[in-house]
Amino acid sequence: MGQGFAFIARQKRITFDDKHFRIDLVFYNRILKSFVLIDLKIGELKHQDLGQMQMYVNYYDRKMRLEDENKTIGIVLCQNKSDLVVEYTLPEANEQIFASKYKTVLPSKEDLIKLISD
C-alpha cells in the first residue's frame, strides 16, 4: 500500500437502522492522518457502488474521525469503469472518493520492460 498505512479491519461491519453494511478493507494512514476505506467490486462499476462508498466515508467522517484528523478517503477498485459514470455520480469538487480499474492478470515481462523504458 505504501508508507504510513496501518491495517484496521477486513469486512468491517457498520450498522444503523437495523441494517448491516460491510466495508471490505479499512486502513489508517499515519502520514495523511486519515482513514482509507477500500471497496472491491467484481465487474463494472455502478453508480450505486459510489453511493455506497459515499455513505461509508460520511459515516467514518461523522462517527470515527477525530477533530485533528483529515477527512476519510474512499477507494473503489473494480474490473471496469466508465469515466462518465464516475464524473456524474460524484460531486464536482470531490476529493475523497476515487474509482480505479484493476487487472486480474499481471502484464508480461516484456510489457513491463517496455512500460519502464517508455
Task: Write structural notes for this entry.
The chain has 118 residues and is an alpha/beta fold. Helices cover 29% and strands 35% of the residues. The protein contains three helices and five strands; from the N terminus they run E-E-E-H-E-H-E-H. The chain has helices at 47-64, 83-89, 109-117, and strands spanning 5-16, 19-29, 34-40, 73-78, 97-101. It has a five-stranded mixed beta sheet, with helices on one face. The chain is globular, with a radius of gyration of 16 Å. The two termini are 24 Å apart.
Helix and strand arrangement:
Layout: E1 5-16, E2 19-29, E3 34-40, H1 47-64, E4 73-78, H2 83-89, E5 97-101, H3 109-117
Parallel strand pairs: 3-4, 4-5
Antiparallel strand pairs: 1-2, 2-3
